[in-house]
Amino acid sequence: MTPELQERIDNLVNQNKIMVFMKGSKLMPQCGFSNNVVQILNMLAVPYETVDVLADHDIRNGIKEYSSWPTIPQVYVNGQFVGGSDILIELYQKGELQQMVEVALAS
Amino acid sequence: MISPSQVEAMIKAGLPDAQVQVQDLTGGGDHYQVTVISSQFEGKGLVQQHQLVYGAVRQAMSSEAIHALSLKTYTPQTWESSRQAV
Questions:
Q1: What is the pLDDT of residues B34-67, one digit of tens each?
Q2: Is B37 helix (H, G, I), strand (E, B) or coil?
Q3: Which of A5, A61, A95, B41 is the most exposed place for a label (fewest CB within 10 A)?
Q4: Domain range B4-85, its CATH number among 3.30.70.330, 2.40.37.10, 3.40.30.10, 3.30.300.90
């Protein structure tokens, strides 16, 4: 990954408390897994930003390397990689996600 | 396209003590739901646990032979308690 791309992704995950790399947009997710993440965050009614990796080839490839995570979507809270669709669902069901985003948004 | 038993073998090659259940979600051989129980997950967060499994199937994922892998990971201990909860 080029330093420029690394810096672009660093900026995205650090400048947004909750950042989602996904296929499609909040209103029109283009993949069921990306849709899961959007639905969960909408249920929590928290503000979050998204990047459509289908519209940005560099980010689509770079983000997999960035967190050694081979799949999209990817969710970052306070600059930390939290997981993809499976982990988000699990954390939500355990009530841990709500806690994590509350802490992040209050900080 | 990859068979469920190939997926299981790849994961066991990476995590020799693992118990693995593989379900083909679409019948198409590229969307799998996998449950993995391994003592190597102990003391690790979910991201690290999933990364261990992804590491074992990395080649199949990067060649897109597997398009999607839905993962559930347990240690022997968390597996026992999740069964008791049901």
A1: 999 999 999 999 999 999 999 999 888 888 888 8
A2: strand
A3: A95
A4: 3.30.300.90
Interface contact B47-A69, CB threshold 8 A: yes
Query: Is the separation of the CB atoms in B50 and A86 below 8 Å?
Result: yes
CA–CA min distance B67, chain A (Å): 9
Lookup: tokens for B62: 């990067």
Burial code (b: 16+ CB inside 10 Å, e: under 16) for A64-101 equals bebbebbbbbbbbbbeebbbbbbbbbbbbeeeebeebb
C-alpha span between A103 and A97 (Å, rounded): 10
Probe site for chain A from B70, B72, B74, B82 (most A CB atoms < 10 A): B70
Hey, are the CB atoms on B61 and A83 less than 8 Å from each other?
A: no
Query: Which residue is it, tokens 């979600």?
Result: B25
- Report whether CATH 3.40.50.300 matches the domain A3-106: no
- Look at A15 and B62; give whichever has higher pLDDT: A15
Point out which residues pair with A29 in neighbouring strands.
Answer: A24
Query: What residues in chain A have their Cβ under 8 A from chain B's Cβ atoms?
Result: 33, 68-71, 81-87, 90-91
* Closest residue on chain B to A84 (Cα): B47
